[in-house]
Amino acid sequence: WQGQEGVLDEAFTYSDGTTQRRIWRLTDQGDGRFVGRADDVVGLAQGQQSGNAFQCGYTLALPVDGRVIEVQFDDWMYLIDERVMLNRATMRKFGVTLGEVTLSFTRRSP
């Protein structure tokens, strides 16, 4: 974080060995509210923090079988300690749940 601006650099490794990277640019709006941008996010992500929990909703442009579909994500993130965060994400299209995923994030040492 530098002032009201922060970066979350996600590097994913999936069980099939494929990798992906998403770089979020976050802005603290005050009162626990945040907005975020990433290259594959449509529009702005809207987030709210309270205690060790953070909820964020956004639309993701998801590549599937050679085309791109837009799906809505509802992320709940829980800070476990200064290095570990757990993330439970639900993915929906037209209000229908397509899937859920649980991720863990580990902060690299500076």
Topology diagram in text:
Elements (H helix, E strand, L loop, with lengths): L4 E9 L5 E12 L2 E5 L3 E10 L2 E12 L2 E13 L4 E10 L2 E11 L4
Antiparallel strand pairs: 1-2, 2-3, 3-4, 4-5, 5-6, 6-7, 7-8
Defining key terms:
110 residues; mainly beta; eight-stranded antiparallel sheet; 0% helix
How would you describe what is shown here?
- With 110 residues, this protein is mainly β.
- Helices cover 0% and strands 75% of the residues.
- The chain has no helices and 8 strands.
- It has strands spanning 5-13, 19-30, 33-37, 41-50, 53-64, 67-79, 84-93, 96-106.
- Strands 1-2-3-4-5-6-7-8 form an 8-stranded antiparallel beta sheet, with no helix packed on it.
- It is globular, with a radius of gyration of 14 Å.
- The two termini are 13 Å apart.
- The model has no long low-confidence stretch (mean pLDDT 92).
